[in-house]
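Anyone have tokens for DHH family phosphoesterase? Sequence:
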Amino acid sequence: MEYSMNRKDNDPFLLGNMKIALNRIVKAINEREKIVIYGYHDFDSVCAISLLMLVLRYVNSDVEYYIPSVYRNDRNLNKEDIENNLLCLGANLIITVGCGVKSKAEIQLCKENNIDIIVTDYHNHIVEDNNCITINTYQTNCNYPFKDFTACSLIYKFIEVIASYYKISCTQKYLDLVMMGIITTEIEIEEENKYFVEEGCKKLKQTNNYGVRALIREHERNYGGIMKFYDEGIIKLLPKMISKNKLDNARIIVELFTTNDSYRAKQISKYLYKEVMMSLE
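Reply: yep, here.
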């Protein structure tokens, strides 16, 4: 993988354990092992899950995702989720999205059940655990120059190495999802995240994602003369689609961003904007 001096992001292989993670996921893809993506209900994580689902489907992997059905403040793997859901799904490999770096006991449980784990987590917490492969900029073996990723921007780095291995040349088309994930976190957008947001805004205006297109059209129908989707719409409205009382919407949004059916995308977008408008009343 070659990186131009004009690019404002860094080589993903500078991330600690990235080569090991690539080898493990390539094995899972090529041998049709069951891969389960595990993430939470915030909009950044939902975009990241969708992003990874799209790429893994593209390379014909056996992949599903799991989002907990109960609200939790922490961002850990959960024992009940593993025992009652992930084992039932027949997972051989779990990839966490924006969570899991502090889940030592749960990772051990997975190991005892012959499930490997790749942890992608942006939180500032250092854990040395030989039972999983950890991609986290704050780990002692990571020399990556930029530290402050979100769930979505970190998973995009992982996707870049998968794309490099399988000779996929179109990963930048997914930057619209990365941009939306970053913006909805309300973090200070700088350095590499700023690059992703700038490029993502360009991709958004020519997106070929049916779900994103449907959201834009539904937004213009409801708020076109008041609030631009590209500006306030993403920041103010999209996070409101998921709340403690509407956690199922996280899964619905993953379905929106991963569908290849334009009619289905249109119907989901109508439902989500109806939810937003009701929450603002």
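The beta strands are 34-39, 62-66, 93-97, 116-120, 133-135.
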